[in-house]
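Priority: medium. Attachment 1 of 2:
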């Protein structure tokens, strides 16, 4: 599915794309589930790639924080 989203919906002109801060907030689960950016990310390869980058960074930082001793 990841490869499908990365290749199927090219939008090199980034028409209608949310800003970087919105994509980052989406990747970090800081936006409501009905936020319009969710639909956009699922239909724009460039935004999905950016989302995946932010999501992986966020997941890694959460895992590192969870691994730290209290």
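Attachment 2 of 2:
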């Amino acid at each position: 599915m990841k490869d499908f989203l990365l290749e199927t919906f090219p939008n090199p002109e980034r028409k209608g794309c949310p800003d970087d801060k919105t994509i980052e907030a989406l990747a970090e689960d800081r936006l409501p589930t009905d936020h319009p950016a969710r639909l956009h990310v699922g239909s724009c390869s460039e935004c999905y790639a950016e989302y995946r980058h932010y999501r992986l960074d966020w997941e890694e930082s959460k895992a590192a924080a969870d691994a730290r001793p209290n």
